[in-house]
Amino acid sequence: MVNEEFEPTDACEAVLDVFKKGRETDGPWGRATPRYLIDETGLEKQNVEYQLRRLRDAGWIQNVARGLYEFVEDPREERQLDLY
Fold first, then answer.
1. Rounded CA gap, 28 and 65, in Å?
2. Does residue 82 contact residue 40 with C-beta atoms inside 8 Å?
3. pLDDT per position in the chain (84 positions), as tens?
4. Are 49 and 38 in contact (CB under 8 A)?
5. Dihedral of the CA atoms 11, 17, 5, 46 (nearest 10)?
6. Helix, strand or coil for residue 49?
7. What is the pTM of this model?
8. Parallel, antiparallel, or unpaired for β 68-71 and 31-32?
């Protein structure tokens, strides 16, 4: 279940941006490892792990295998679509 009330911090947004990167093209997107997120965001390991826990607890990402996370949903996008 996705927590629509969750308000991501700037660090959460940076992590989310990596998950979403590539979806505007035909490239693969939506999955990432902590190491990849560290490299892409420049955030410290502990911070990336913390943001992953927060996003997972909010239901926006899920852990699909040990060390592999997958984007589920960003409920803010649905609200934006409803405005048009």
1. 17
2. no
3. 899 999 999 999 999 999 999 888 888 899 999 999 999 999 999 999 999 999 999 999 999 999 999 999 999 987 654 444
4. no
5. -30
6. helix
7. 0.88
8. antiparallel
